[in-house]
Amino acid sequence: MLALAGTGLLVLAGLWSLTVGATGMPPDRVAGALWAAAGSADRGLVLGVRLPRIVLAALVGASLAVAGLLAQTLTRNPLASAQTFGINAGAAVAIVATTIAFGAGGVAATVAAFAGAGVVGVVMWALSAATAIGTVGLALAGMSLQILLSALVQAILVMNNSTQDIVFWLAGSVTGAQWPDVTLLLPFTLTGCAVAAVAHRGFGLLALDSATGEALGQNTRRVAGGAALLVVTLAGASVAVAGPIGFVGLIVPHIARALVGGDFGRRLVLCVVGGALLLVVADLLARLVAFPGETPAGVITAVVGAPAFLFLALRSKTR
Amino acid sequence: MSSVPLRPARPLGRVVLAVVAVLAAAGLSACSSQAATKLAGASDTNARDIVHELGTTKIGGRPARVVALEFSFVQTLDQLGVTPVGIADDDDAARIPQLLGKKIDYTSVGTRLEPNLELVSGLQPDLIIADSTRHATIYPQLGAIAPTIVLNSWEGSYQDIKDSALTIADALGDRAKGETAVAEHDRRMKEIAAKIPAGSDGRVLLAVATPDGMSLHTSSAFTGSVFKAIGLKPAVDATDTVESGVGLERLVAVDPDMLFVATDGPGTVYDEWRNNSAWAGISAVRSKAVYEVNRNAFSRFRGMHTAEVIAADVVRKLNGDR
Amino acid sequence: MTLPGNRTRTRVHVIVLLGLLVAGLALAGICAGAVPLSPPQVLDALTGGPNGFVVLQYRLPRVAVAVLAGAALALSGLFLQAAVRNPLASPDVIGVTKGAGLGAMLVAVLVPPGAHLWATPVGVVAGAASVTALLLRFSRRAGAHGATLALAGIAIAALAAAAMQYLMVVFPQRADQAMVWLAGSVYGSTGADVAGLAVWLVVCLPGVVVCARLLDLAGLGDDSQSGLGWSPRGIRVLLVVVAVALAAGSVAAVGGIGFLGLLAPHLAARLAGRRARWLVPATALTGAVVLSLADLAGRLVALPNELPAGVVAAVVGGPYLLYILLREARVHA
Description:
Chain B is an alpha/beta fold. Chain B contains 13 helices and 13 strands. The longest helix of chain B has 33 residues, at 10-42. Chain C is built from 13 helices and no strands. Chain C has helices at 3-31, 39-46, 52-84, 96-110, 116-141, 146-170, 175-183, 191-218, 222-227, 232-254, 259-272, 276-300, 309-332. Classes of the chains: A mainly alpha, B alpha/beta, C mainly alpha.
C-alpha cells in the first residue's frame, strides 16, 4: 500500500518537475510538447533536458537509499551510509583524479569510482567488524576518512586551478543530466535492486548476529561480502553520474523502518520508491530556490538531512 | 587524590617561553616591514601618485623591471614597449606566445592564484601590477617588495581594461605613450566595426563550457562589452559579469543568434549538448552560427589586443567567412 | 623503584628533542625555498642586507605562523578528544573548521577586497563561535554525553559545508581561492598575522593551563569528577570552549588544517605517554613539527608553485589515520 502511495507521489513530483524550467512552460504546453512532432523545440526541451534529469534523479536516489539500507544492515549501525562512511568521497577522489589525468570520460570515471569506493568500503567494513568500536566511533571514523579524502580532492583541484569548473558536481547535482548518464547508471541500479530483492532473506538475516545466521543455514561471510559489493557498486555508479550527494542513503532507510518496521524486504521496496521520491523532490526544490538559477540538489539534501541525522544520532544514543 | 597534578606543570613554562619568543620575533618583522615601505617611495624627486583599486602608490623614475600577475597586464606592458621580467603564467609557458603573438624572455613566478613571492622578490622588480580580486590579500607583501598597483583585470570590463592601460602607462612614467596606444586601438576597433554588414542586429553570446555546465558572459563582462563597443548586442544584459552554472534549458531560453563556445578542448558539456534534441532549438544552431573558440583567447586573456582579435574574428564570421 | 625516574627522564628527553626539531625545522624553513639561502646570507638579511624581504617578511612570518598554528591546532584536538572522550575527535570532525570556513567565505563574497585583511579573522571567529554555541546548546538538550557533541558536530559541519557549496555555486570566481583556503595554507602570512595569532594565543593561555590540569580528570569517569568538585559538564564545556578558541585563532591565520588536530595528539601520546604534564607540551610541539614540515615540503616539491600545507599534511597523514583506525578496530575487537 505504502509503496503504491509512494509511487503515486513520485509520479506526481515527476510531472510537476516536468513543468519547471528556465523557459517557463505552462503544463498544457508541456503536455502538448509530449505529442508534438519530432524536431519541435518544446519537445526537445521536455524529452531531451527535463525528462532525463527527473529519471536520473530517481535512479540516483533509489541507488543511494538501497546502498544505505544495505550498509546499515551489514554493519548493524543506524548511522551507516555510503556518505557517512566516506565511500562517496572515495569515489569522488578517484573520479577527479582520472578526469584531470586522462580527460573526462563516462566509463573510465565509473570504473575509477568503483575502485575508490571499493577501497574505502573495505576499510570501513574491517572497522565495523570490530563491534566494540561503537556506533559513534564508526561514524567518527567514517567522517575522518571523508575529511581526508576531501582534502585530496581539494589538493587535485587547487593544483589544477579548476574548482570553478566543477562546483555543481562537487556538491552533488543532477543539473546536467543527459540520456547517456541515465543509460550509464540504469544497469547498475537495476542489477543492484534486483540482487537485493532476490537475496532479501539472506540480507535480512545479516541484521541478526552471525551465529543465528549460521544456525539458519547461511554462509554469513559470503552474504556479507555480497552486500558490501552491492553498496560499493550502487554508490560508486551514483557518484560517477551525479557527484557525492549526501544524506539520502542515511535517512531513507530510517523513514522506511518507521513506516513498515524491521522487515528487510518491505524496507527495500520502500527505499527504492522513497529514495527516488526524495531526490526528485530535492532536485525540484533545487530548481525553485534561486529560480531561474540552479542549486545543486546535494545542498538541499544536506539541509534536510543534517538535522535528521542529528535526530537519529541522538535517538540511537538514548536507546 | 594526591596524584592529580595541581601544581603548575613545568613543561608548560617552556611553551610560554616559546610563545613570548615568537611574539618578539613577530614584532620585529612587523616593524621592519613598515620601515621598508617608507624607504621605497621617499627618495625620489619626480615621484608620481598612482591611484589604483586598493589605494595610492608613489612611483618614481621609469620602472623597467616589471612583474605582471595577470595576462592582460602583460599585453598592455608589451604594447607600451616594456617586457615584463616576471609573469604569473599558471605554469603554462605556451600561453604567453599565444597572448602576445611572439616569444619573450621572462621568469615564471607560478600561478595567478598564488604567485611565488620569493621569486617575485628575487627578480628585484621596480613595479608590480596585481589583480584586485586575486591579490588583495597579498597586497601588503607585494608592496614590501616593490611599489605595487592593483587593477581590476579578472572581473574587469573592456572599459576597465582600457583605463588600466592608461594607469599602467602613468606608472611607467609615460602617460602620453598610453594615450597614443589607446587612441590607435580605438582607431583599429572603429575600422573593424565598420566592416560589420548592415542589418546585423543579432544577439551575440560568449559561453564558456566546463565539465559542469556553461558560464554565460554578460554585457558587463570583458567579451560582452567588446561586443557592445563595436555595436553588437550581447545576448545577456546584466550587471553581474558572468551567469554561471547554466544548463542547456537556460541556454535555449537565452536563445542567442550567434554563439561562441569557449573550451579548453574536449571533455566539456559542449560535447554532450550538441547531440541533445533541445540543442536544435537555439537560433544560432539553426542559422549555423555556433563557433567553438579557444578559452584562453576569448575568456582568460583580456587586454586591448585581445579585444581586437575577438572583434575581428566576430566580424569575419558575420561576413560569412567561417 | 627507579623506573618512574627513568621514565621522567625519557620524557624530558622527548620534549627537548621535539623542541630542537621545531627549532631545526624553523631554521630550515628560513633557509630553504624557491631562493635557497645559506645561514650567513640569512644573518646578512636579518641585519638589513639583500634578501631582507624573503627572510624577514616572507619566511620568518610563515615559519612563525606554522609553529604557532600547528601547536594550537594540536592542543585543540587534544582537548576535544578529552571532552568527547573519543580519540577520533578533531576540530574538523566537530564542525568548528567548517563553521570558520563558512565565516571566511561569507567575508570573501560579501566584503570588498580591500577590507579582507581585517574582515576575514572576524568572520572566522564569528563562524567558529556560532558553531560552538549550537554545539553546546544541543549537548545541553540531549544530556552531557561526549558522543552527543561529536554527532552534533558532524551534522553542523554538513550544514556549513552545504552553505559553502552553495556560495561556491553562486560565486564561482571565488571557488578556487576558497578551495585553497579550505585546504589550509601558510602562504602569504605577514608579521601582522603572526602578531595577531600570538596575541590571541596569549589570551587563550590561562585557559590552556587550566585545561591541561583538567585533562587527567577528564579521563576519569563522571562520578570521580564530581567527587573532585568539578561537574563533568563544566569540564566538558571548558575543554570545548578553549579548544574552539585555539582552533579559531589558527584557522583565521592558516585556513582549514583541522586534520592536524586529529593526528598530533596520537603521535604525541606515543612519544610522551598519556599524563597531561608531558602530553600537553609534547602535543603542542608535535603539532608545530608537523605543520612546519608540511609547509616546508609544500614549498619545495612543486616549484615554482606551492602546495598548501594542509594538503601535504592530509596526504602524509592519511596513512597514519588509517593506521589509527585499524588499531582502534584491533583494540576493540
